[in-house]
Amino acid sequence: MLSRIADSMYWMARYLERAGETARLMEINLLYLVEAEEDMGEEDKWRPILQINSSEPLYIEQFGNGSISTSRVLQFISAGRNNPSSIRTCLRLFRENARVARDRISKEMWEAVNEIWMSFNERLKGPLSAERAGNLFVELRNQVARFNGLVASTMMRGEAYAFYQLGGCFERADMTVRTLDVKYHIILPDLSMVGSALDYYQWAALLKSLSGFEAFRRNYHSAFMPADVAEFVVLNRDFPRSIVFSVKHMGSALQIIGLENKDATGTAFANLSEMVGGTSQQIFDAGLHEYLESLLEKMSLVHGALAEEFFQ
Amino acid sequence: MYNAGMQGSKPRTPYHEFYADDFTPRDHYRLLWDHIRATGNNALEAKAHESQLALQAEGVTFTVYGESEEGIERIWPFDLIPRIITAPEWVKIESGLKQRVRALNLFLGDLYGDQKIIKDGVIPPELIYQGRDFRREIVGIVPPRGIYTHVSGIDIIRDEKGEFLILEDNLRTPSGVSYMIENRVIERRILPEFFNKYRVRRVEHYPSLLLAALRALSPRGAANAEIVLLTPGIYNSAYFEHTFLAKEMGVELAEGRDMVTVNDIVYLKTTTGLQRVDVIYRRIDDDFLDPLVFRSDSSLGIAGVINAWRAGNVAIVNAPGSGIADDKAVYPYVPDIIRYYLGQEPILNNVPTYQMTNVKDREYVFDNMERMVIKAVSESGGYGMLMGPSSTPALRKEFVDLVQENPRNYIAQPVVYLSRHVCYMDGELEARHLDLRPYVIYGDDIEVVPGGLTRVALRKGSLVVNSSQGGGSKDTWVLAE
Question: Which residues of A touch B254 (CB under 8 A)?
Fold first, then answer.
């Protein structure tokens, strides 16, 4: 298939996944605000979200220091036109890439793309109250799920599909790494606390933003132990939002695409796979933050190799 | 020279296609009229709403340029009352278009070959050589099968007497055919009961006709043809149509940057390496086609594609250089072109046209500007045009200067009051002006798809039907015998 179309299928999936994951993150954060600790200011509540969204510097540049408030962040992350990671921007680019690949996606998918963009573009126009935003996030998650259902049920299992899967898994892994990294830091400021049980609400929020709360509870019966959470989110092969799960599925997509004469991609992906093949002990020995940073670096090498060998 | 009978102009009444007089519809509209009166306006309102939703969901859009970074994508405006053309009317249109396209292709072959028509004094040489779309670079190249315009979209209007006249030949990259088909799909979905009353000829096979014509041009044989639709990209106003046709034909939709030329062979850049291309259905102008031959600043084209074409390794549709035949300054000569090559009288007439290079014509036009349309010869889509009746004195002054500066660049035509038809506008049936663009495919033979794109000027009283200027459209029914 055309390199440019492969690129668009890949990014189409990434932008939709990013929009959906961001909505989930925001939704959970809003819910937990209602009952948050009294001494926790709005700054503390929303800064991590800006960090995960990689838009903190842009936000500060736009609104100044000490300006973080619920209503502003809601607006900025949801509808910010000049925020390249806002939900609106993601959905716009999702549709733009779908338009480029219009002749490769099914009619059902295309109609859904249009519906998603038009309805959310409309709903993101007015000022967003917390309540309206909450409903909007839930609705967007439903739409993303529905869209991925259409992909599964109407799309030919060829290269285009494989690039779509590759993009989706890549973005999901990326969001999981960043969510874990940022949240972990806040919840566990002091490494000496690694062995102690943690704040129930904070950890529940983290797991819920990854849709993994119930599964975690079934797997680990003790209180929330940092090592358990990290192990679950990074290494559990059955948890669909774990990093190892996403990486495994990137591998299946790459197999369909074929890696003949694509040495850079092959090598970069092998390195990434190797990193998620260890044990939680190894991760903590290296330091979780360092481990996650190095994961992000490996992922960006994979992305670079893909761009070099497939998208140009 | 062409102004016989145009002098003493009294107010004229446009032809009404639907009504014979104030109270009765024409015969072929009677069944439709009875049906509309029986079901009433509420039913129409519901149908109109339904058609809007369908167009929106399917993303049937066009893009209006120059407004914001995201471009303004508008839903294709569709009017649900169909326009009906009777079988005898169609016979005349069809034979007239075939004759015209045949003659224009012979003309192009001659211009880029021996130029007999110039030597015989039928066409003034300066008219051709000064034409922006005459491409010296390709003189002497004979395209596959000697065909230049595989796809033509020829604009037809009806004058005050109801006569069909040719308004414009679009021989470069005529657009709109996808809307012809979408209009039919929507009309059939929301108004199946209308179709029960008439025998309407089908139009949806257009992409398969086009595909067959494209395949036949492949240098490696039709069976192995790798065909590409070349688009300028998603911001082009006709991008919807490009994706539509690529999907319907099952061919690759590519941009210039997706292709490279190596040793006079064009290749697609794919995830598994280079893949040879046989036929390019290009939807970009000659100017942008090949930066090595035409505009060097073009990033939309494929460097080296003209050499590959010259070597016979790739076919380009429509052939480069076709634009000179639809140059508006050449247009007044088309009747003579038909007589010269075919020895026949034109079946469909032109709209009377004044040449601005002719001093007498020019003075007459300047004296009567309020009744004239002045057009820049190499513009299309309703751009670069003066509509006399609605113009301001300042604008008229501006056009006098423009014409005097470069007379070759302009023609003028008396305003023709395009025929009218009923349209459903916000709860009422109102009269609006319209034209017709049928599509002609030149493959094994010349075929005209029975139908076309009917464009409607949605603003009351307006004569401009271009979608970029507030035009809409109707499904067009050609009746079987």
Answer: 2, 4
pLDDT of residue A221: 76
Domain of B402 in residue numbering reads as 352-415
Give the number of domains in chain B.
2
Query: Each residue of B85-112: pLDDT tens digit?
Result: 999 999 999 999 999 999 999 999 999 9
One domain, residues B195 and B224: yes
Chain segment A96-143, per-residue pLDDT in tens = 999 999 888 988 999 999 999 999 999 999 888 888 999 999 999 999
Please name the residue of chain A whose CA is at the shortest distance from the CA of residue B61: A114
Are B340 and B366 in a shared domain? no
- Which CATH number belongs to the domain containing residue B409 in this structure? 3.30.1490.270
**How far is residue A143's CA from residue B268's CA, in Å, rounded to a whole number?**
35
Nearest to A2 among B239, B247, B258 (CB): B258
Characterize the bridge pairing of strands B410-414 and B354-355.
antiparallel
A203 backbone dihedrals φ, ψ, rounded to 5°? -70, -35
| Domain map (residue ranges) of chain A | 1-155, 157-312
Query: Is the Cβ–Cβ distance between B231 and B239 less than 8 Å?
Result: yes
Q: Does B252 touch chain A (CB under 8 A)?
A: yes
Asked whether residue B21 is domain-assigned, the answer is no
pLDDT in tens, A170-223: 999 999 998 888 877 777 666 666 555 556 777 788 888 888 888 888 888 777
Q: How far is A3 from chain B (nearest CA, A)?
A: 5
Tell me, yes or no, whether B327 and B426 share the same domain: yes
User: Which chain B residues touch A6 with a CB distance below 8 Å?
Assistant: 271
Q: Is residue B352 a contact partner of residue B6, using CB atoms and an 8 Å limit? A: yes
User: Burial of A63 by CB count in 10 Å (0-12 exposed, 13-18 middle, 19+ buried)?
Assistant: middle
The residues near B406 (Cβ < 8 Å, ≥ 6 apart) are none
Q: Are B262 and B333 part of one and the same domain?
A: yes
Dihedrals phi, psi of A96, to nearest 5 degrees: -60, -45
Q: Which residues of A touch B57 (CB under 8 A)?
A: 111, 114-115
CA-closest candidate to residue B149, choices B450, B441, B445: B441
Q: What would the pLDDT profile of B378-392 be if each residue is shown by its tens digit? A: 666 667 788 888 889
ipTM of the complex as predicted: 0.73
What mean pLDDT is reported for chain B?
90
For residue B357, give the nearest of B412, B308, B304, B395 by alpha carbon: B412
Q: What is the average pLDDT across B54-72?
A: 71
Residues B280 and B395 in one domain: no
Give pLDDT, residue B197.
Answer: 83
| pLDDT at residue B369 tops 50 | yes
